[in-house]
Amino acid sequence: MNDIAAGLFKRYYKGLCYFAWKLVGDSELAEDLVQDAFIVYLQRKDDISDDENSIRSFLYTAVKFAAFNISRKNKVVAKYWTKVDFREMDEIDLEHTIIQSEFYSRVNQIIATLPPSCQEICKMGYIEGYSNEEISEILKLSVNTVKTQKRRGITVLRSFMKPELMAFFLAFTDI
């Protein structure tokens, strides 16, 4: 894989995985779909514009169609789809899911700039949904330490995000 493709993979992988997971409800299958989308992109990159928006659109579309094709082709696995509540989304739902996955990808990028202990606490609290007490027990830290690290993380997030994005983040996390 060349440097450009590696950069695209690094930039879009997590967001695409989240998008795929929202479609299929299975993280391993979602990762497979995303990896397949990148393989298809690499095979067809000469046919695709070098414009980053075109590439991003191609990758999201490839993941979407791969998820829908799995649903249609695998009648044997229909019970599984019922179990994970797979449904075809309309275009508005897909756009919201894409926006949400890109947003969480950006949050992950910002959190990755934090010191390791603060990073871990913020991921557990804001992304994985653990309470301060649960984080405290798991990491064997005081609740006040957890709160302090989460405050530091929020301060960094605020400095990197526009106010309307920060409001979106705060609306979807338990702070």
Structural class: mainly alpha
Q: What is Rg?
A: 18 Å
Helical amount: over 70%
H and E string: HHHHHHHHH
Molecular structure report:
Residues 8-75 form the RNA polymerase sigma-70 region domain. This is RNA polymerase sigma-70 factor. The longest helix is centred in the N-terminal third of the chain and has 22 residues, at 3-24. This protein folds into 2 domains: 1-112; 114-175, Arc Repressor Mutant, subunit A (Orthogonal Bundle), CATH 1.10.10. Helix 1 packs across helix 2 (27-44), helix 1 (3-24) runs parallel beside helix 3 and helix 1 packs across helix 5 (91-111). It has helices at residues 3-24, 27-44, 52-73, 78-83, 91-111, 116-127, 132-139, 143-160, 163-171. By secondary structure, the protein is mostly helical. The protein has 9 helices and no strands. Helices cover 78% and strands 0% of the residues. The termini are far apart. The radius of gyration is 18 Å and the shape is elongated.
